[in-house]
Amino acid sequence: MVKHASLAKVCFITSLSLISSASLASEKSIAELVDAVNGTLDDASREAGKQVKLRNHAKGFCTSGSFIPAAELQQQLDIPFFNQGPIKVTARFSLGGTNANLSDKTPGRFMSLKIDGEKESLNFVTTNVPIFFASNLDDFYSFQTKIKEGPQGKQWLKDNKPDAKRFLDYVAQLPPSPSFANSRYFGVNSFYFRQSQSDKTAEPIAGKWIFEPLAGTAALSKDELAKMDDNFLKAELLTRIETQAAEWELYIQLAEASDIINDPTVSWPDSRPRLLAGKLVIDGKRDSAPEVSQCGDGIFNPVLLPKGITPSADPILNARTPAYIESFIRRR
Fold first, then answer.
1. Residue 308 near residue 78, CB atoms below 8 Å
2. At what angle do helices 137-147 and 30-38 cross, to 10 degrees?
3. What does the alpha-carbon distance between residue 121 and residue 12 come to, in Å, rounded to a whole number?
4. Mean pLDDT in the chain?
5. How many CB atoms lie within 10 A of CB 81?
6. Which of the 8 DSSP states describes residue 183?
7. Neighbours of 176 (CB within 10 A)
8. Has residue 47 got a pLDDT over 90?
9. pLDDT reading at 135 higher than 90
10. 0.90 exceeded by the pTM?
11. Confidence check: pLDDT of 26 > 80
């Protein structure tokens, strides 16, 4: 409990400057946003949610590996964090939503990472969908409340919220992958990256994270999906990495002048240049370590950033940490 309390305190201090800006951008408080995600819109349901430690991404598991930075990245970006040897990684793979019994036959896949270097850390919160469903916190609240109303609420979103419609249409055509290892993962939010010191006048450049699976992408056919049970993903990945690590190349997709930076509902063209940041290797070798086995109890803070990387003004990004803290506190 002391360990968790310390974590919450550190994350809270990190996020103080974000809470006010995020709240001012919306009529909804951080607590109300968490209520919308959890479906706890009244006192009784909120207390019931606390009793069962209700949370988003309820179905998931932790494992471990390492990150190997790409040495050539330093020629273009000035980020000392990437100038070191293999770095230990704690990973959590999950599905979306508060249902811990959600079927793995659904298409959503999520990967969160803690990459803990010698002096600094870098966290990721990524998804296999390259666009988000809301560009601001009020639309986020509307999406979360309406989607829980079932088909009627979903149709309302399609009729009234173009960003939500685009997201729902994308997910509807997305086939489930047979493995977490066969999914691309996107950081839908933008960050700013400091350019190489060779040009000290260069402004930071905006970019987004993309993880490309070295095993390639794959999709289950309808016949294959029908033969699967509802809980195949965890066993598949943990069995896979007993003999061969799951690996991804991490890229930073760079924005051009015409690209929208602070809106996660907008994806940039595939033609945008990308820089190789390194390779993620998930092998499970540290799975017995407490920080790995208990990682589901903690927070993956996407604005816990090393020197040379700063968050954009995206309101969704800047609300994530205070919302995660609120959810974390409710689960204590």
1. yes
2. 20
3. 16
4. 92
5. 20
6. -
7. 21
8. yes
9. yes
10. yes
11. no
